[in-house]
Design a protein that fits this description.
36% strand; 5 strands; two-stranded antiparallel sheet; elongated; three-stranded antiparallel sheet; alpha+beta
Length: 105
């Protein structure tokens, strides 16, 4: 968060990654940001599909609430093949800039 504050120069920021923290801890540690996945607890996936254990938060994109709206997120999956389970490769988040940021060049 310190690095984002020091380098953002007033521009909106996103944070993407595979988070092992639960949603409450994740939001608490990133003030002003919100996970694109609206209710991670309600969308549990099998460990093989999520790329890790089900106890963590998982793949997500965090966005600055004051700069972004219109959130949609979907997993990028490698489908199951025979005996091999499917593999979650990442996430695709669709965000819409809002307010003064949307008109800035």
């Amino acid at each position: 968060m310190t690095w984002i504050g020091a380098t953002a120069e007033g521009m909106p920021s996103l944070i993407a990654g595979d988070f092992s923290a639960n949603t409450v801890e994740l939001v608490r540690s990133t003030p002003g940001f919100q996970p694109a996945r609206r209710n991670p607890g309600g969308r549990a996936e099998a460990p093989a599909a999520s790329g890790g254990g089900s106890s963590g938060h998982g793949l997500d994109v965090l966005f600055q609430v004051k700069h972004f709206g219109g959130i949609r997120q979907q997993p990028i999956l490698l489908p199951a093949d025979g005996d091999l389970p499917g593999l979650r490769l990442g996430v695709l988040a669709t965000l819409r800039l809002q307010g003064d940021t949307a008109t800035a060049e």
